[in-house]
Design goal:
Distance between the termini: 13 Å
Number of helices: 11
CATH architecture of the largest domain: 3-Layer(aba) Sandwich
Number of domains: 2
Number of strands: 10
Helix content: 40-55%
CATH topology of the largest domain: Rossmann fold
CATH class of the largest domain: Alpha Beta
Largest sheet: 10 strands, mixed
Strand order of the largest sheet: 3-2-1-4-5-10-9-6-7-8
Shape: elongated
Structural class: alpha/beta
CATH superfamily of the largest domain: HUPs
Strand content: 15-25%
């Protein structure tokens, strides 16, 4: 995992007309920008600041008309704001480019990823509760479903480093990439890696409800625990070869609840979950888990996907 071409979404809705620094942005956008800049420095990567103006067709027409007739252009002012943010980052030894476009932020970011070959997308989210859930109902959830490259949803700027990383898996096809990415991140920051496998207990609860044969359910549970223990051990062994300290845990329960509890208990700065390499990832378990992690912990979220040449 080596990121070299990052893009960060810049939300100008809360910025002042003369924004010149991160303090003029919304807290969520400021966190995303600072996190992206920090990651760019850490990985010696280029960084693109992209602002999407989410306006309706009539407003877009008015903006473009003003530009055509030489009046004060909203696009020009937006570009100046983004350029001023980029200039600050350049003073911090980050290679920065900028762009302003029309459209929904999630859609604009995806178009930029495909057009420019980005290998990491960074967005921000609000603090816990409804703010985080609202974001996941729009930009971040859209990216969770459609983004073909890794996605970093920032809750805190990692300026002080990363001490604890949780790789949360359900031992599906995305588990190896989640653990590899988490292990590489942990090695980079000399952090502890916790490989958490959650055994979803919904099937056992259904079996009890429809069968009520406790012995049969118990055999099913023990078989799943044994299989999970073997598979998790293999993943942990692979993570150890990458060069980090690894702890493994098996827990039964509802995945979202268990991941939140575990991340909070170990004080994780980053939670890593995996997603398939190709195609859409229907919100489902990933969306629910991501929403709860972001709304109920202080951890940032890395959604790991294999790069196309490694899938």
């Amino acid at each position: 995992m080596t990121w070299k071409n990052l893009v960060v979404g810049i939300d100008l809705a809360g910025a002042s007309p003369s924004a010149a620094g991160p303090d003029d942005l919304s807290p969520a956008c400021r966190t995303a920008l600072e996190s992206a800049a920090w990651l760019s420095r850490r990985y010696d990567a280029s960084l693109h600041l992209l602002a999407a103006l989410d306006v309706d067709a009539r407003a877009e027409e008015l903006i473009l008309d003003a530009e055509r007739f030489g009046r004060g252009s909203t696009l020009d002012r937006a570009a100046r704001v983004v350029d001023s943010l980029a200039e600050t980052r350049r003073g911090q030894d980050v290679r920065v480019s900028t762009g302003v476009t029309f459209g929904l932020p999630g859609v604009a970011l995806l178009a930029d990823v495909r057009r420019s070959g980005r290998d990491l997308v960074v967005v921000g989210t609000g603090t816990g509760g409804t703010a985080a859930r609202g974001l996941l109902g729009s930009t971040a959830l859209h990216l969770l479903r459609h983004c073909p490259v890794p996605l970093w949803v920032a809750r805190a700027t990692p300026e002080l480093g990363i001490r604890t990383v949780v790789a949360a898996t359900v031992l599906d096809e995305a588990a190896p990439e989640a653990v590899r990415s988490a292990a590489t991140l942990a090695r980079e920051f000399a952090a502890e890696l916790h490989v958490l496998h959650v055994i979803d207990d919904s099937a056992a609860r259904v079996l009890r409800a429809v069968d009520a044969d406790e012995a049969k359910v118990d055999r099913y549970r023990r078989r799943r625990l044994t299989d999970a223990d073997i598979a998790t051990g293999r993943l942990a062994a692979e993570a150890a070869t990458i060069g980090c300290s690894v702890t493994t845990r098996l827990r039964e329960g509802r995945p979202a609840q268990v991941v939140v509890e575990d991340a909070r208990a170990v004080g994780a700065e980053v939670v890593v979950i995996g997603a398939p390499a190709y195609g859409e990832f229907v919100a489902g378990r990933l969306g629910i888990t991501a929403e709860r992690v972001l709304s109920e912990t202080d951890a940032s979220l890395l959604v790991a996907r294999p790069f196309p040449d490694s899938a």
